[in-house]
Write a structure and sequence with these properties.
2 copies of one chain form a homodimer. Chain A contains 8 helices and 9 strands. Chain A is of the alpha/beta class. Mean pLDDT of chain A is 88; it is low at 1-6. In chain A, a hairpin with a 2-residue loop joins strand 5 (128-129) and strand 6 (132-135).
Chain lengths: 215, 215
Amino acid sequence: MKDKKNTSASLPTLRRLPRYIHVLKRLKLKNTEYVSATTIAEELEIESIQVRKDLSVTGIVGKPKIGFELDELIISIQEFLNWNKQEDAYLIGVGGLGKAIVSYENFKNYGLNIVAVFDNNKKKIGKKINGLEILPLDKLYDFGERKNVKIGVITTPASAAQEVCDKLIINGVKAIWNFSPVSLKAPKDIIIESVHLSQSLAVLTHKLSMKVIEK
Amino acid sequence: MKDKKNTSASLPTLRRLPRYIHVLKRLKLKNTEYVSATTIAEELEIESIQVRKDLSVTGIVGKPKIGFELDELIISIQEFLNWNKQEDAYLIGVGGLGKAIVSYENFKNYGLNIVAVFDNNKKKIGKKINGLEILPLDKLYDFGERKNVKIGVITTPASAAQEVCDKLIINGVKAIWNFSPVSLKAPKDIIIESVHLSQSLAVLTHKLSMKVIEK
């Protein structure tokens, strides 16, 4: 396995790599030791040449006719995604979605470790969620000086999202995982990755309405 | 406003339409009455020709030099996405994410009305969440006969997702909103829209690791 950690990859490749990990972990439960790109491709219904190309960015080389050693392949992808380490993160906005994200232990396997949660609702401040005390947003400044937190997760309502984003950046955050329905404005060197659930739902409900008309 | 409800749209257009609604609702709070495609485009940092093209699929026609009447435009997009009506939905898997989705009242504005929740964990069955009693999965059959539910939301762990998907389809569900990390297999006429949070996180953590190396 070569070290290609300084290689970047296309967005579609980055999005497919976690799906490979899911398939590989499932195969591991069945005591599989070696896996071919073709097997992964069939499982996910994509082209095997695509799988080979994607895996090559991680630097791993398979054995001819045998394929990849399963554990080595998982580790190789995880290292490429930086999931072998955990990156500390703040979460702001402890509503339903915020609570779900803080409580979802699995994100630790995806490199995300939430170390502090914030909310401006006085009824929430001081309460604990998953062992973390909910802090007022002003406390970001104290944390910013002591800690080296690079990721901010925004689960606030739309109206608060941009202000929260600005405050996170002032406090040293370099990457924002945005769940609010807002298009956040930030300097170019800040990474913004948004999950817009309403967009996903739009595809679903529109396609369904088309279907009903068809019949 | 023409009725073009039987027109379909590209996936990128469908994903942009909810963002337009968010912008329009914010402008409405500022008592704006008319809005141009250019204003929307600037707000979202996309090309105005793109906005004009997207809005045209809904059948709305703006007034030259004035733009679109705000309320009419919102309604036009909502009708196109089928968000003027609510579609009944089942949710299966009442973990952290499932709870968050059931509790998020806003999805009703996006056309989604969860009418029943299911889980196979005996400790959860019988408890209530947002006024809905958590039912065992077997009860799907009873519901399927009485109701006409077209959408299933899957928030189960990976290991249960495919089985749940199969059961939903047997019971008449036509569209699946999948939050599990599995690539679900289903007949071609079934709509599957997946939200893979780990994929989004992969983009974030990898880009961040690249950034750290750069410096």
